[in-house]
Amino acid sequence: MIPAAKPIIGDEEREAVDRVLRSGMLAQGPEVKAFEEEFSATVGGRHCVAMNSGTSGLHLGFIAAGIQRGDEVIVPSFSFAATANSVALAGATPIFADIDPKTFNMDPDHVETLITSKTKAIMPVHLYGHIAAMDRYQEISSKYGVKIIEDAAQGHLASLNGRNAGEFGICATFSFYPTKNMTAGEGGMVVTDDAEVARMLRLLRNQGQEIRYQNEVVGFNTRMTDIHAAIGRVQLRKLPGWTKQRQDNAAYLDSHIKGVVIPFVQPGSTHSYHQYTVRVTGASSEKRDAFMKGLTERGVGSGVYYPTPIHRLQSFNLTLDLPETELLAKECVSLPVHPSLSQSDLETIATAVNEVAASL
Ligand SMILES: *Cc1c(COP(=O)(O)O)cnc(C)c1O
Prior knowledge:
Helix content: 25-40%
Strand content: 5-15%
Number of strands: 12
Strand order of the largest sheet: 1-9-8-5-4-2-3
Radius of gyration: 20 Å
CATH topology of the largest domain: Aspartate Aminotransferase, domain 2
Number of helices: 11
Shape: globular
Number of domains: 2
CATH superfamily of the largest domain: Type I PLP-dependent aspartate aminotransferase-like (Major domain)
Distance between the termini: 22 Å
Bound molecules: pyridoxal-5'-phosphate
Order of helices and strands: HHEHEHEHEHEEEEEHHEEHHEH
């Protein structure tokens, strides 16, 4: 079976963990500091603050950016639950926008219609490693005076006109969950170009203190351990090569699969293919599920990200009219695109997709 996703852990990661274990210093320390400094090179030299998860990073990012109870933050409903959870955990209200059916990212035209006097921020998600319409969000941000906060959990090395994900918002958060384009076991990185926001993030992640026992604000413990940071540092060095491999795999699939809609790449953008997501058209999840079953029978794993729009999850339970979101939730399937695929795996995937799509 070709798995839908596969984290790559090698001897270097094992040695890095062992180095930390032998040091006897396990909690946040020099490895975290080095990881933050090294990650900064991927986001135009911005301040980097490591966290124990991407979700913590998003949550604390809102607090550090001054988002409060009563504020509204516009997010896509077509995303992982953490996108909206982090808004709600910060005390604000997530307002769900529809997606652009071509890019699968939040639709800036719809976002603009949702802006009210309570809107304080917009959080685009760089879904599947395809950068959101950041040029449009920058216009909207200056026109209405709202902040941009990026959910870059899937956006490692995705770019628009040479600018990487993470270089647009007042802050942006990357995730290092094992299925992401690089991992630390668990973890997140908040990046910002604002020194005050960075300082507040450092306070919030550590009980509100910069100097021990001099707590300035009420804070959390969302620190990353040196064990996780050591893994992350090794993976960060491999990220450019892995991203290139994902892009090569995607190019192969683009030119060999038929009968499903292949991913669109926005002009000027570099897709980093966290997921390679196709559309099985027909507006029915039964058809999509039959497609996936056919792939499984041919030894090809696949996944649905995401089967239920966030606004309809029990946790939010809202009735909204987001037609493009509803349609994509029924039609999307992500195929394996990870860097461990061999040429023969790619051929197996393409053959399986073509056979099954033709049979539906
Ligand atoms: C993975 C992910 C998150 C959360 O990251 P964790 O590190 O798992 O907490 C948030 N948003 C999106 C879009 C994600 O894919």
